[in-house]
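Protocol step 4 of 6: structure prediction from sequence.
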Amino acid sequence: MAGHQGTSTRRSPVEGLFAATEAERREINTTLDGTIVSYDRATQRATIQPKLERKFGDKTLKAPPLQEIKVVQQNGGGFGVHVDLKAGDPVTVHFRQRSVDKSQTDGSDTNGAPGRMHDLSDAIAYPGGGEDSKVMTNMPAGGAHFGASDGKKGMQTRADGSTAIVGGPSGSDKFKVGPTGKIDMVSESGDSLLDIVKAALVLIRDHLNSGAPVDSATQVAANQLIAKIDGMKA
């Protein structure tokens, strides 16, 4: 079979056909891992080093860097998410089956007639990929995370319908919106801003001035504000 021909099989027409077919397949570019060399966030194009090399005898040649490759940042409907890539970041590079000279310039259809196919110059890249061991950590179960890859900075939605902005050294919830719309703000020490405000209102309501309580109007107003805090705190 192709790839295993010896001197005796090279004379076989069938083996020769297999070898020619395999040689052609080896020249077809489909999808490769790559790393960012440089990225221009204004144009969202990058120079990318494909993770591909070939050996010729005792020589090893790396694939050349791909220039001016469009990086697909997720967007649609007038909204999008942008990741400002840096050198060394992994990307997945796809090589489109026809020339994109027209579709990527004036938006017209690509001509399916003979021409470039799976060419290195028709690459497009997607952020992510890389080694299997490099994964995002501390991801919320049954939810989504938009932020740092360590899961400690950003916005998260959870399976119970709640949403939180996480941050600080612990990556704990700093601003929380509960499933029913109740909210809270929590410091790195675990102190709730609403609890602090409530405690201040209780202090005002229960304050004694020369042994006499505050006036009834102040007590009523403080109780109303305390009730509002209890009703809004997640």
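Step 5 (inspection) to follow. DSSP finds three helices and 16 strands in the chain.
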